[in-house]
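Friendly challenge for the regulars: who can give me the structure tokens for this chain first? No prize, just bragging rights.
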Amino acid sequence: MRHFLLFFEFVPDYESRRPQYRDAHLRMAWQACERGELVLAGALTDPLDTGVLLFSVESVEQVEKYAREDPYVVNGLVTRWHVREWATVVGKDAILPLGKPGPATAT
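First reply, four minutes later:
Bragging rights claimed.
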């Protein structure tokens, strides 16, 4: 498995247009979550202009397919989206865990 971050850049009037597509968007997200693909998802606030979704999947193509089918993308609430692989190294779910360094010593 690999971690990928999917970034959605929202249209300026996203907040006012979101309600009619939100149920479909959330249904799709929860289905991906139940399949074990989507780990976390949400929006960056102040300003509310970007969505970030963390996926744990085998390939970037899976995330790209998700993005192309998301109701916010399909209905023009997203001006641009892009995917970045995230080399996670610390935490219980890290894909490439690095050992915890020993205690620091004074020099």
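The helical segments are 14-17, 19-34, 60-69, 71-74. The longest helix spans residues 19-34. Your move, everyone else.
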